[in-house]
Amino acid sequence: MTTDQIEDGDEAITKPRPKQGAVPDIFVRPVEPEDAPGVTALMNLPGYRWGTMRLPYQSVSTTRQKMSTSGPNFVCLVATSKEEIVGMASLTRFEGRRSHVGAVGMGVHDSYVGHGLGTRLLTSLLEVADDWWALRRIELTVNTDNARAIGLYERMGFEREGVLRDYALRGGEFIDAVSMARLAKLPQSGKSSET
């Protein structure tokens, strides 16, 4: 543990602060309809928005509407700390000839970047992809200047497939994105219960 000095009147109080990657009170769970205000607050943070395709000033009603359109091919998780939503990640399974493919989207609260939330959220999504949906390919796009996220994805088995030039408008400038994908091993055949 490291510590922060906090001024309290005339005396300084030493307050423990978790080391990066060591936030003990984080829980990952499915998003619920009543999470709309917390999800909206998360998505409106400047750092969160900078690394995603979100527009500023998203309303709670817009968030509720988007949350209500999910179905059986969509998993959305939130990470919480002391009841506050501090991260969110989703996995969408495609249909038809791309039913073996899923797409990931995620973001972490500005104050919790570097504390392992992205790893925990992505690990949970990959468990669904591998162990429940048997997805062969998981794909995502990430801004080329988001080195921390690219590093996370590479540690989790994603590989760069190409650069998407002038992919999005951010802060009045066009930015590039990296297309990344992770190919999973095909599921193993289980032993028959019949002998």
Strand line-up of the largest beta sheet: 3-4-5-6-7-9-8
| Unreliable spans | 1-19
Element string (H = helix, E = strand): EEEHHHEEEHEHEE
Oligomer: single chain
What is the number of strand segments?
A: 9
Tell me what portion of residues adopts beta-strand conformation: 35-45%
**Mind telling me the C-alpha Rg?**
19 Å
N/C terminus separation? 55 Å
Helix % is 10-25%
Biggest β-sheet description: 7 strands, mixed
The dominant shape is: globular
Number of helices: 5
Structural class given helices, strands, pairing?
alpha+beta
Mean pLDDT: 85
Please tell me about this protein's structure.
With 195 residues, this protein is an alpha+beta fold. Helix content is 24%, strand content 38%. The protein has helices spanning 36-43, 46-50, 60-67, 117-132, 147-155, and strands at residues 2-8, 11-17, 26-30, 74-81, 84-93, 101-108, 137-143, 159-170, 173-183. The strands form two sheets. Strands 3-4-5-6-7-9-8 form a seven-stranded mixed sheet, sandwiched between helices. Strands 1-2 form a two-stranded antiparallel ribbon. Strand 4 and strand 5 form a beta hairpin. Helix 1 packs across helix 3 (60-67). The longest helix is centred in the middle third of the chain and has 16 residues, at 117-132. The N and C termini lie far apart (55 Å). The relative contact order is 0.13.
